[in-house]
Amino acid sequence: MKKKDKEKDDFQIPEEALRKIKSQTELDDFFHGLYKQAVEGMLKAEMDEHLGYQKHQTKDKAGVNSRNGFSNKVLKTNIGNIPLDMPRDRESSFDPVIVPKHQRMSARIEQAIITLYSRGMSTRDIEATVKEMYGIELSEGTVSNITNTIIENIKQWQQKPLESVYFVVWMDGIVIKIRNNGKVQGKTIYLIIGLKQDGLKEVLGMWISETESASFWMNVLTDLKARGVDDILIACTDNLAGIKQAINAVYPNTVTQLCIVHQIRNSARYVAWKERKQFIADLKLVYGAINKETAHDALENFAAKWGSKYGYAIKSWKENWEELTSYFDYPMEIRKIIYTTNTIESLNSTIRKYTKTKTVFPDDQSALKAVYLAISNIQLKWTMAIRDWGMIINQFIIKFGDRCRI
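Predicted structure:
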């Protein structure tokens, strides 16, 4: 084959090349070839910039640094080892950016892919963006392989030592649609946020499960215990199945506060639409009372008015009264922090903004990767302590004494 024809064959358009592919090995070789061409093209462009003139151009003056052939380098990437021809210069001063010396290439491109993934971009959009930005053709499998490096980060994060005491933890879950055995089902990724001694929040971990139970929550809390959490002062949660029993078993001194907002929503579901507004207005006299005794009297009056029509809606208030009214034992500043799980619901809402382009995840691992990256981005903005923390921490110390470990 003539040299000219060979060069033409090496750079044939993808459509022509793809028609000749008959096996997975040939397909992998094809993409490796595109990757190699793109990277070597960028390296040559960097050399042009470094020398100040393009290949085959005449140098302005004698003594100017010039090209000195190529050296061989095997580039380790997540799509395999790629042999490269690295351009050299006579002064050995060329230090490429796209393939730094003694480093993997892809540090730059792989980080770009992970960043795009963390922003909620679909795999297909990432492929298109990387092609536009870097001229590199990536397959869906390649993007997945690169983002799989996140799994090791998740494992390390889930084992990271935690604070010995958290003043408040908020516990809730976010439902994600995941494909399983050809069917789409909703699974819940449960999250826990902790309030530290400095007034800052941090996400303590995430756990995926199809069902809730005391056993599941026991395992979650035991994980926290093993990572160094000796005490939790107050736990704020929705009325999740088995949660109270698990908290009592692992952290028997922890105060449990059920989310008032969730409780109101759950009660309102059993009320006719035309009466719901008045029902909720009357209910406010209960949860908005000045103390627990006044709240109890208000609940009795509320039950007398609505009990005959909506007894089931009121039953839950009576059965969970102690956990629903724990916040009355604290000053108003602490009450505002613990009477609702809005803190974690806000986190869930922001996670959905990052994952909204992925309506269905192909597996559990993909969902965990997306949620973890969203959490990482969100926590970068958690740099401010809770408002009036100086006053609030003193209130905690008065109520809990040495358990605060200040």
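Summary: The chain has 17 helices and seven strands.
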